[in-house]
Write a structure and sequence with these properties.
Layout: E1 11-14, E2 25-31, H1 35-42, E3 43-45, E4 57-63, E5 70-79, E6 90-96, H2 99-111, E7 115-116, H3 121-128, H4 134-144, H5 149-159, H6 164-186, H7 196-214, H8 217-225, E8 227-233, H9 239-247, E9 265-271, E10 274-280, H10 290-305, E11 308-314, H11 321-330, E12 335-340, H12 347-351, E13 362-364, H13 373-383, H14 400-421, H15 426-444, H16 450-457
Parallel strand pairs: 1-7, 8-10, 8-11, 11-12, 12-13
Antiparallel strand pairs: 1-2, 2-6, 3-4, 4-5, 5-6, 9-10
Helix pairs in contact: 4-5, 6-7, 6-15, 7-14, 14-15
Length: 464
């Protein structure tokens, strides 16, 4: 590993989010061989109880080791190895929330001999010490960053080993196949002929399961990163009303005056388990107003950078030339046409919305009366191929790194099948089979490089 992850050292970090007047408790975490000795120089138990038992909480205070000045009143939690998150001695100081108490306690830990932990170093130590495999470590990061209940559920499934278990089983199957083949290479005269049909059937079974896992990659990406959805259209077609109805709160100012929205207004939602960042944009039109012009340009940029565009039109006004101009700017984006204000339009006006044939999805809404929102959410999920997300099996959802490794495993297994079909010697079978075994091992971390570990754990927060 890199120098920052030096084994045998004691690390310290703030393990909770800290903001002024935003939290009642802040935790400073120590892990390593000197964690207990550092804690004993700083912590002074209340009363006469001096026994530092593992997994027991002590009440007392932190004092500066030289001046004996009280720094904070804390709870101390000791978790002795191997019964800890890192399988090292771990000490946590549960301080008062806020910036100063935890910062002062952390500084005393660093002065006492610990060094500041790097991003993800606690979890990295858990992985290196066999407490977690790599899929579980990545699931911890996903769980911390989950933005919807479905994303949290998928991350929790990974943490419970629901991805690692089948990967290990498939890798074991490949190792068994490899052992059978190599035994025939080394002891061909002493063993019965190789059952080629059985080998082919086993490889096809592994291939099918790997393909099934790869099918969860898009779902996993949706759950982790979510969607960016931009509501665009002319001024006063009800874009802000749509955002307010959808988010069930008054996120945007709504008036009858065109051009009320001057900047992009954002709201975070979850649709069918998928995190959605909804962006209400300024009405797109030509204007002499300097401020509004800036908002219009931002709206265009947001629309072009969105995963999905909701082009909103006024049902009463029908499809106007201005709507057509906006459509030309976003037509290459994934798009849903939202015909809003149907409550104010007559049947004839609704029929006058003669939108281009190239628009495949149209949803009618009356945002002011919360009508059509459910239909809009269904259309969004279908547009991003997530319509079956809620009904899907959430045992796991692989990430991009895991998908890349499984793709290599699949290609290697397909090459083994081709090698057998071409009746090449057994030595050739083993080449790609070993590559498949290596790729499967990369998913769980049984075969992984230092650079991959550095890249994975650098995305974690410092205290995790």
């Amino acid at each position: 590993m890199s120098e920052t992850f030096t084994p045998g050292t004691t690390i310290a970090a703030i393990a909770t989010a800290i903001a002024p007047q935003q939290g009642s408790i802040g935790i400073v975490r120590l892990s390593g061989p000197e964690a207990l000795s550092i804690a004993k120089t700083l912590f002074h138990p209340a009363g006469k109880r001096q026994v530092w038992e593992s997994h027991r909480i002590l009440y007392g205070c932190i004092r500066h080791p030289q001046t004996q000045q009280v720094v904070d009143e804390v709870l101390l939690l000791v978790m002795k190895a191997p019964r800890s998150y890192t399988r090292e001695d771990v000490v946590e100081f549960h301080c008062h929330g806020g910036i100063m108490p935890v910062q002062q306690v952390l500084q005393l830990c660093l002065e006492g001999g610990a060094r500041l932990a790097q991003a993800g170093e606690f979890t990295l130590r858990a992985f290196l010490n066999g407490r977690l495999d790599l899929t579980q470590a990545e699931s911890i990061s996903d769980l911390v960053g989950a933005r919807s209940p479905a994303a949290a559920l998928a991350a929790l499934a990974g943490l419970q080993g629901k991805l690692a278990a089948p990967i290990r089983r498939l890798r074991a199957s490949c190792l068994d196949i490899l052992a059978e083949i190599e035994a025939r290479i080394d002891f061909e005269e002493d063993l019965p002929p190789l059952d080629e049909g059985y080998i082919i059937a086993q490889i096809e079974r592994v291939l099918a399961e790997v393909s099934g896992m790869l099918a969860t990659a898009d779902r996993g990406e949706l759950l982790r990163t979510g969607l960016k959805v931009a509501i665009v259209g002319r001024p006063n077609v009800g874009k802000s009303s749509l955002l307010n109805a959808w988010s069930r709160c008054d996120r945007a100012i709504v008036t009858e005056l065109p051009g009320t929205t001057r900047d992009v207004v954002e709201s975070q939602l979850a649709v069918g388990g998928v995190p959605v960042q909804v962006l209400d944009t300024a009405g797109i039109r030509e204007t002499a107003d300097v401020v509004e012009k800036i908002g219009v340009e931002r709206s265009r940029r947001v629309a072009l950078g969105a995963d999905l565009v909701l082009l909103t039109v006024d049902a009463g006004a029908g499809w106007t030339p201005e709507d057509g101009e906006i459509y030309e700017q976003v037509r290459h984006q994934k798009l849903i046409l939202v015909v809003n204000k149907i409550d104010l339009a007559s049947g004839e006006n609704l029929a006058s919305v003669q939108y281009p044939d190239s628009i495949g999805c149209v949803v009618a809404t009356a945002a002011a009366h919360n009508r059509g929102i459910e239909e809009l959410e269904k259309a969004i999920l279908e547009a991003v191929s997530a319509g079956n997300l809620q009904a899907a099996n959430l045992d796991f959802a692989i990430n991009q790194r895991q998908a890349a490794a499984l793709t290599r495993a699949k290609a290697s297994l397909q090459q083994v099948s081709a090698t057998i079909a071409n009746q090449l010697p057994l030595d050739f079978w083993t080449i790609d089979l070993r590559l498949a075994i290596q790729a499967l091992g990369e998913v769980t971390g049984e075969e992984v490089t230092e650079s991959v570990l550095d890249r994975i754990f650098s995305r974690f927060c410092i205290g995790k």
